[in-house]
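ZP: hey, is the iron/sulfur cluster complex queued? I don't see it on the tracker
AM: it wasn't, my bad. submitting now with these inputs:
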Amino acid sequence: MMYFQVFFALSVLSLTGILVLMIFTSLYEKRKNAALKALLLIPVFLLSLFLLRLPQSLNWVLITIDCVILLVSAYVFAPRFLFKQQAEELPQGNIDERTIMFSRNELKPDTERYKKYYQEFPKHKDNDDRFRMLPGLLSTKSTFYHPLAYRAAEATFQIVDSLHQHVDGKQNEHVTPVSADQFGEFIETWAKKEGVASIGYTKTKDYHWYSVGGRGERYGQAIEQKHQYAIAFTVEMDHEMVMSAPKSSIIMESASQYLRAGIIASQMAQFIRNNGFEARAHIDGNYQVVAPLVARDANLGEIGRMGLLMTPELGPRNRVGVITTNMPLPVSDRKFDDSFEDFCSKCLKCAVNCPATAISKEDKILINNVNRWQINSDKCFKYWYSAGTDCGRCMSTCPYSHPSNLMHNLVRWSIRNFPNFRYWAVKMDDFFYGRISSSAKLPKWMLLN
Ligand code: SF4
Ligand code: SF4
């Protein structure tokens, strides 16, 4: 065989190999449509091997195809260092926690707090009163009511609430004489054994902190920015439970991962206090910081179009836990990764699939000194209140959310490292999984007869 024939054959066989991997991966993930599409493509590639039998006078055909393959590959897989990296923009100012939807949800009509809030922020009143008329989260009247899943989520959230008493406390008088690096290494290894997916350290910044507390006893209290360091970590949301979003599996899974993050954060904060330093865990319903921003600055990922932290390993399919402390930690410099934003600017899949049209399909806009997308949390929350769950369709449809395995990890890695590949990654995801994808059935064990 001539060298150009070998090159052609190897190219076809490599692509066929990727399709075979796709079939096995999709079958394992129960994505039958994707497996079928990959299967149907294989004969097309294999048939092209007949070109190897062309007479010598037509060798130029294969040579031309080889040249096209080479040029296209060089273009699609041009490495990111050949491209100009976007500059990072940092937010300014602090968010008043009272204004976020979770806090507004806790306001009870006819109470003093309710009256005062809407005097100060009258623009929220009409919208908020409308969502209060809807069935509500975990309501028996909501669209995705499931008697057992809702009670399971409720039970888990109750346990999360009971952790609030452990988020803060007095530290030991005796300081353990261990270096920042040793503490950092110990915490990282231990946290991973406890089930975190990723962990990082950062110095806290002014914009990490809420200005005023908005929930429970912290309502209306100025937040004191008393800790210089933060530990941020992510825990994985189960893929199968997420794929049925917005059905009841999603709220069960959210509750479970809030609990896992809450336990680990409380455990770590107590550990740090036992070593003689101040520490506070920031867990569901009891944050003093904007957790995704802390996690981003601890180099765990970037904020995507849907406003959630997207990590290189799991995309948005994660929950974040944070501990702030005055214990010195081995912080590393922030490494801004513009690949997420660039991919989001091409993808828009979450926006297209959001049942509440709450995710922007437009370009980024300048908010608090940062060009970014902003989701319409009023619309999102209103949908939650009729669905009865925390929806999660955006998370389930995101191409970054696929399970962690050879094929998807390779795609995620290529998205980060080859800017021109991003466009094709979106097209491939649309082809195999559908641009508008339907929500999966509930896991079998959750079905009630
Ligand atoms: S959670 Fe649901 S409603 Fe909210 S932004 Fe995501 S897809 Fe839209
Ligand atoms: S679905 Fe697409 S646009 Fe939305 S966050 Fe994921 S990658 Fe970004």
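AM: back. The chain has a mean pLDDT of 95.
ZP: great, adding it to the tracker
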